[in-house]
Amino acid sequence: MNEIARAVIARAGLGLAKQLIQGHALDALGRCVAARALKRDQFFARCAQLPAGCPVAMEARSSGHCWARKLRELGLDARLVVAHFVTPYRMEGRN
Fold first, then answer.
1. Strand-pair partners of 37
2. In the chain, N or C: fewer CB atoms in 10 Å?
3. Which has the closest alpha carbon to 40: 60, 61, 66?
4. Which of the four pLDDT bands, split at 50, 70 and 90, describes residue 4?
């Protein structure tokens, strides 16, 4: 991720799974500027490239709490979303 892409990212969303973590980055207008599946060992290094204070949303599940603590240590605004509020976003992507 280069400096120009970092400046464009306003917020990010994560889909946590066992092997891969799906990440989406949005600009200030809500347009997707990046979407990528990352292996767990690549994920933390990529998050370190996000702008400081960037809100990062993820589902509140067992691994989500651990990742949120690590992202907050990087200076990111990690937010956990309750599962029943995540479902409409997943369904929206299928249309």
1. 22
2. C
3. 66
4. very low
Structural domain count of the chain: 1
Q: What is the mean pLDDT of residues 22-34?
A: 88
Helix segments in the chain, DSSP class H = 3-8, 40-47, 62-73, 83-92
Residue 2 predicted with pLDDT over 60: no
Domain that holds residue 87: 3-92
**Residue 1 to residues 30, 51, 65, 81, 84: CA-CA distances in angstroms?**
19, 11, 25, 26, 32
Q: Is the pLDDT of residue 79 over 90?
A: yes
Instruction: Show the tokens assigned to 82.
Output: 């309750």
User: What CATH number has the domain bearing residue 56?
Assistant: 3.30.420.260
